[in-house]
Amino acid sequence: MTHDHHGTKLRRRFRMLDTDGDGFLMQGDYEALGRRIASACAADDPQRAARIAAHFQEVWRHLAATAGVSPDQRIAEEDFVRMHRDGHLHARKSTQSKLLFEMLDADGDGKVKPEVFRAYYQACGVSGEDADHAFVQIDTDKKGFLSPAEIAKASMDFFSSTEGTAPGNHLFGKHS
Ligand SMILES: [Ca+2]
Ligand SMILES: [Ca+2]
Known about the structure:
Blueprint lengths: L4 H13 L6 E2 L1 H15 L4 H22 L7 E2 H9 L7 H12 L9 H10 L4 H11 L9 H13 L16
Antiparallel strand pairs: 1-2
Helix pairs in contact: 1-4, 2-3, 2-6, 5-8, 6-7
The structure holds calcium ion (2 copies).
């Protein structure tokens, strides 16, 4: 039997999102993560910080709606993994990667720099070393910054690819 790369990735993503570590995703997990990321990436820009917080609330509402629960209920790990495997969240992926890019492109110049990428993922609980490793993998043209297309490709690979070697597998930390 081959290694279940897809399931491993999705479980790692789940644990990153489950900020209080109780084994369920709830609104509070997304609020806490949004606050943490806003203060890591937009501490000196209240408008951007507010957009990041709003983004996480929107992502949670969408996830809850897709799972068929109300936003004040919770989602278990197995349900999260199954929803992504079944492709239920597919329509949202391009929007998600655009929002991710906007969060990471701190100065709005159309490029994601390694420092901001590292700050973002450290706020998600990924080590600086793993974040740097991921950056190098995702920077496929090796120009030293990430373009919207590279982020979109990485995001798509992460959530959809069942291949162990896809660069996007590193999007949320080192994939082994
Ligand atoms: Ca939780
Ligand atoms: Ca690049």
